[in-house]
Design brief:
D-Maltodextrin-Binding Protein, domain 2; 2 domains; four-stranded antiparallel sheet; elongated; alpha+beta
Length: about 220
């Protein structure tokens, strides 16, 4: 789907790791707060690769990762911003950054960001970068990771409506056309709803039958 919603988790830089220039530090530990699922399993293994490279480039500097649940992380970050005890680096949802910024908990990284090579910056979604740039010369964050949405279609319903399941949906126009065709041929109709599961990361497309015909199109992250 060309216009799928993407929910990006973002890295907020406070006393940024980018500030270090490779000189030897003495027993410096950078605090990195993140979601609990990012501090264990496969995700922390990937993060540890970057941490190891950073620590090798900056002798004497260590990175300590602390994982928290969603509510605990937001509360801890907001409290830390209010008391000027922010960690050096943290991850949070893009829409949770405002209260932390309002309390002065986020450093403007605009100059550091644009000091990086264009080739490196080009790998990031520029639309997302725009979300973190409230005004010219200000950048509060950079993308850290995101979720892709997957659309599952009920093949039985598609076939009953005369739609070839092997023909992929290219855009929203295709999706709407199929919804209309399903309604016109089977009496079922398409509707959109957000669940409250996992911060609305689960999105459902349901073909709701007028006569309780089993038909569900499910889109999940």
């Amino acid at each position: 789907m060309n216009k799928r919603r993407l929910f990006f988790v973002v890295v907020m830089l406070v006393v940024s790791c980018l500030a270090y220039t490779g000189v030897t530090a003495e027993d410096t530990t950078l605090q990195f707060w993140t979601f609990s699922e990012f501090s264990s399993g496969d995700l922390i293994e990937q993060t540890n690769i970057a941490i190891k490279e950073f620590e090798e480039e900056h002798p004497g500097v260590k990175v300590q990762v602390t994982g928290m649940g969603d509510d605990e992380l937001l509360m801890s970050l907001t409290t830390a911003a209010m008391t000027d005890t922010m960690p050096d680096l943290f991850v949070t949802n893009a829409y949770d950054g405002a209260p932390i910024a309002n309390y002065g908990g986020i450093t403007n990284i605009y100059d550091r960001w644009y000091a990086e090579p264009e080739e490196w910056r080009a790998q990031f979604d520029q639309t997302i970068i725009g979300y973190y740039t409230p005004e010219e010369g200000v950048l509060y964050s950079m993308p850290y990771t995101g979720w892709a949405e997957v659309l599952y279609r009920n093949l039985t319903v598609l076939q009953e409506a005369g739609i070839d399941p092997d023909q992929p949906i290219k855009n929203w126009d295709d999706f709407i056309a199929q919804c209309k065709q399903i309604y016109e041929t089977t009496g079922a109709y398409c509707t959109f709803n957000n669940t409250l599961s996992f911060n609305d990361f689960l999105s459902w497309y349901a073909v709701l039958p007028l006569l309780k015909k089993p038909a569900l199109i499910l889109k999940i992250m």
